[in-house]
Design goal:
This protein has a single domain, classed as Serine Threonine Protein Phosphatase 5, Tetratricopeptide repeat (Alpha Horseshoe), CATH 1.25.40. The longest helix has 17 residues. The chain is built from 4 helices and no strands. It has 86 residues and is mostly helical.
Length: 86
């Protein structure tokens, strides 16, 4: 049902990712968010996309993947500073 409304679907899925992250289930959160990334192309890459990149950065950091966390953080910063090229 939510698949017909991409923006709402992405918000709902992001909430599931955040819930798993808060519970400390980083692997499940990472798996869910990686499935969500292709759907971002269906909507304008905006605040939701930046929030997802920040969430990915936090997940990677907490999983000990520091270099990946930095890359996601840089991507979020780039998207925030240059929204027209994100």
């Amino acid at each position: 049902m939510l698949k017909n409304e991409p923006s709402i679907y992405i918000l709902a899925e992001t909430a599931l990712v955040e819930n798993n992250y808060i519970k400390g289930d980083f692997q499940k959160a990472k798996s869910l968010v990686e499935k969500l990334l292709p759907d971002l192309e269906k909507i304008a890459f905006n605040e939701e996309g930046i929030s997802i990149l920040i969430l990915l950065s936090n997940i990677a950091k907490d999983m000990g993947e520091v270099l990946q966390a930095v890359e996601y953080g840089k991507a979020a910063l780039k998207a925030a500073l240059n929204p027209e090229i994100a």
